[in-house]
Specification:
The structure holds two protein chains of two kinds.
Chain A lengths: L2 E6 L7 H14 L3 E6 L22 H5 L10 E2 L11 E5 L5 H10 L3 H14 L4 E5 L6 H9 L2 E6 L3 H16 L5 E8 L5 H12 L2 E7 L2 H6 L5 H4 L4 H14 L2
Chain B lengths: L3 H15 L1 H14 L22 E6 L4 E5 L5 E2 L3 H14 L1 H7 L27 H9 L6 H16 L7 H10 L1 H12 L7 H12 L2 E2 L1 H12 L17 H11 L5 H7 L4 E3 L4 E6 L3 E6 L10 H14 L13 H6 L7
Antiparallel strand pairs in B: 1-2, 1-7, 3-4, 5-6, 6-7
Helix pairs in contact in B: 2-13, 3-4, 3-11, 5-8, 5-9, 6-9, 7-9
Classes of the chains: A alpha/beta, B alpha+beta.
Chain lengths: 252, 342
């Protein structure tokens, strides 16, 4: 049975796309067939991490939503360059970065049923083991949809008050949508914080497990949006933490 | 922040999209879209304009949840499907005994346009063949032809929850070429089975066949019958609860033209089809199905629509007399509990 994993955060800047790229790549490197859909239509970005240049992506999620292409034709193999080999595969369906395309989607909207049917079609057509959905921050139609169809919802938060509050709101919504499994990931944790105490506090507050903690990392910041960290630094503790999170998705 | 009511309603509209049951319907749609059998009706030029690839499936539960896939907004003429509902209106206007004295409820085994009346009683065989439908149309009350038409349109509005228009070119074409129906009307007039306002009644008959509906309307109409005559979304009563059984049972025995016996045996859902490509099917107390796909088989029933009803009946055990545990449990698939349709 394929598994759908949505990555979400209430506010922007939590490192959602970076997290998605690293986790999806980690799971693909373990020999799984993995797809990522960038549903962050208003502000797409994850394609940068896979060095997928807009001039080479003539078909995007937008074109699918407008009925101009099948969704599998908008999927690009991004795994090969990262060393995904053997049975593993890694595909990305990017959103368009053209201002006109973004404006058109925002102005006209799209049929949310089409998005649902597209996810299912993609899983079938590419025979995926895992489908990752990178979302736009905050609550929106596509957030609701991605939460409702997920087997696992990962909520990313930073240790600050605004994120705490927003995460609580998102969890209310997720429970209303009868989400099957929720995991929390805490990102950009200052080195001065006691990580064990933080983890315990967050788990007590929300009643859900913290799947991983990631330090505010100069290493990641340096790489910024130019690559997938866990490929470039496989032995780094951060890459190890991604493998821990992956274990909770693959195993659980 | 939205209050919980809004959150709940948005959440339920999203879960209707992601529900395993809708995913199931999407699979059916994809599977049957590929079937290219059957021919679009072309006895009048307007019907021949329908595109053979049009295909919509809508299911409305008797508690008002709507699941739709494909061309559910595409309008088409209701054609014979109206007959079941006009029969219901005639029953409300005159009561069961009087209506039965004018129209029998016996399946014919003949084609829907056969010129045949019961030899002993002179009644047309049932309200689903043309002769019977003309006789029930004759019974619709109203002080003028306009009022009689308005009463019919109001009735359809109660079933679907929205206003309906007549497709005038279809109406005029049917009227211009309806010699056979005219002949049947005079035969029935000869036996005193219809009144002498033949032209007015025939106009009304051709108009009711030319009412524009879509697959969602059909599903809403059948869900209303499934829900004891109350539209499950608007909560408005569309038909007196006493006559729901009349309409639904005649659909079961006569609704699919001369394929009705086979249908009752194999599918076991009271249904009515029209040559415009629509089929509606009722699963009492559970749901209504509406399908639209113009290519018809030799008996005049939508090829893809039949497939959809057959699959739903089989996979969810919706045959009226099914006693076996179905492969899929309907409520679980609708709610999405414990069902992983990936």
């Amino acid at each position: 049975m394929p598994k759908v994993v949505s990555i979400h955060s209430y506010r922007g800047g939590t490192g959602k796309s970076n997290f998605t790229a690293n986790l999806a790549t980690t799971i693909a490197l373990q020999g799984n067939r993995v797809g990522i859909v960038d549903t962050d239509v208003p502000s797409p970005g994850i394609h940068n991490l896979f060095s997928l240049e807009p001039e080479h992506t003539h078909k995007t999620l937008n074109n699918y939503l407008w009925g101009e292409t099948s969704i599998e034709d908008a999927a690009y193999d991004v795994g090969e360059k990262l060393g995904v080999a053997g049975d593993g595969q890694l595909y990305l369906v990017p959103s368009s970065v053209k201002a006109d395309d973004i404006a058109r989607i925002l102005k006209d909207g799209y049929d949310v049923r089409l998005m649902n049917d597209g996810f299912r079609r993609l899983v079938k057509a590419l025979n995926l083991d895992y489908l990752f959905i990178d979302t736009h921050p905050g609550l929106s139609k596509e957030t609701f949809l991605s939460i409702a169809i997920s087997h696992v919802l990962i909520l990313i938060l930073r240790p600050d008050k605004q994120d705490y509050q927003g995460t609580a709101v998102t969890m209310d919504v997720a429970r209303q949508l009868k989400v099957r499994k929720m995991l929390l990931a805490i990102n950009k944790v200052y080195s001065s914080l006691n990580v064990d105490a933080l983890k315990q506090k967050v788990e007590e507050t929300y009643g859900e497990a913290v799947a991983g903690l990631f330090p505010l990392s100069e290493d990641i910041v340096q790489l910024a949006s130019e690559g997938v960290f866990c490929v470039n630094y496989p032995e780094h503790p951060i890459s190890q933490e991604f493998r821990n999170v992956a274990q909770q998705i693959v195993g659980g | 922040m939205a209050d919980i009511g809004d959150l709940q309603s948005l959440a339920s509209s999203i879960t209707a999209v992601t529900s395993p049951f809708r995913n199931y319907l999407t699979e059916l749609h994809g599977q049957f879209q590929a079937i290219n059998d059957g021919d679009v009706a072309d006895y009048i030029p307007e019907l021949a304009l329908a595109k053979p690839e049009w295909f919509g499936i809508c299911v409305v539960t008797s508690d008002g949840q709507v699941f739709e896939v494909g061309d559910c907004d595409q309008l088409f003429t209701i054609q014979s499907i109206s007959k079941a509902f006009v029969f219901g209106l005639a029953l409300e206007d005159h009561g069961r005994d009087y209506v039965n004295s004018k129209v029998s409820v016996e399946p014919t085994g003949e084609a829907f346009n056969a010129i045949v009346l019961d030899e002993v009683t002179n009644r047309p065989y049932n309200p689903m063949v043309n002769a019977g439908a003309i006789a029930t149309t004759d019974l619709i009350q109203g002080s003028s032809s306009t009022e009689r038409l308005k009463r019919m349109l109001d009735m359809f509005k109660r079933y679907t929850g929205r206003d309906h228009d007549i497709n005038v070119p279809v109406f005029l074409s049917e009227k211009a070429t309806g010699y056979r129906n005219r002949a049947m009307s005079y035969l029935m007039l000869n036996f005193g089975m219809v009144g002498d306002k033949i032209d007015e009644t025939l106009d009304l008959y051709f108009q009711q066949c030319s009412i524009m509906v879509n697959a969602r309307d059909l599903a809403m109409m059948s869900a209303t019958l499934a829900n004891g005559g109350i539209n499950p979304v608007t909560k408005e009563r569309a038909i007196d609860e006493r006559y729901v059984q009349d309409v639904v049972s005649v659909m079961l025995t006569c609704g699919m033209y001369d394929a009705s016996g086979e249908w009752a045996y194999r599918v076991g859902m009271p249904a009515k089809s029209g040559v415009g490509g629509g089929i509606l099917a009722v699963v009492p107390n559970q749901l209504g199905i509406g399908t639209f796909s113009p290519p018809l088989d030799a008996k005049g029933n939508s090829v893809r629509g039949i497939k959809v009803c057959e699959a739903l009946a089989k996979d969810f055990g919706l045959h009226l007399f099914n006693a076996a545990k179905p492969e899929r449990e309907l409520q679980a698939w609708i709610d999405g509990n414990d069902v992983d349709s990936w």
